[in-house]
């Protein structure tokens, strides 16, 4: 898929994922399901952000980057530093989280795999020129 096209799709996906993440975090009642959804959306947002910045990067490597970043942030939470930072500036908790949970590691990796799969499927669909792909820029 041409880089410009992939970047545009990723930008729209990023906006939708961030909006969904804010709804999950701010509107829905806190539960295990919303925690898992938020974690998955976090990794997908990282994935989309990497594609916006590096649209030529292959999906596998974007997935490694998004999953690796998410796991690194989760492990950083085990230090307690993100909690201290969030006490001084609450929005940082949306980026760094606050508490380590081993389950999150699995969620991040699964979300990265799903994002890679979605990227590959959308890319192949666009290469064939099916569906709404005719509405997107060609370059």
From TrEMBL:
InterPro entries: DUF2809 (IPR021257), TAT_signal (IPR006311). It holds the Pfam family DUF2809. The keyword Transmembrane helix applies. The keyword Transmembrane helix applies. Keywords: Membrane, Transmembrane, Transmembrane helix. The chain crosses the membrane at residues 36-54, 61-85, 105-126. This is DUF2809 domain-containing protein. It comes from Microbacterium testaceum (Aureobacterium testaceum).
């Amino acid at each position: 898929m041409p880089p410009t096209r992939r970047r545009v799709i990723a930008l729209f996906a990023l906006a939708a994922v961030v909006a969904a993440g804010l709804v999950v975090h701010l509107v829905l009642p806190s539960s295990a399901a919303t925690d898992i959804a938020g974690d998955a959306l976090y990794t997908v947002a990282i994935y989309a952000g990497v594609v916006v910045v590096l649209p030529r990067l292959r999906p596998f490597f974007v997935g490694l980057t998004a999953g690796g970043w998410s796991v690194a942030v989760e492990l950083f939470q085990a230090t307690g530093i993100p909690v201290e930072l969030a006490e001084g500036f609450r929005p940082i908790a949306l980026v760094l989280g606050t508490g380590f949970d081993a389950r999150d590691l699995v969620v991040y990796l699964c979300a990265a795999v799903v994002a890679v799969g979605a990227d590959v499927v959308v890319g192949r669909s666009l290469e064939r020129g099916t569906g709404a792909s005719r509405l997107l820029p060609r370059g």
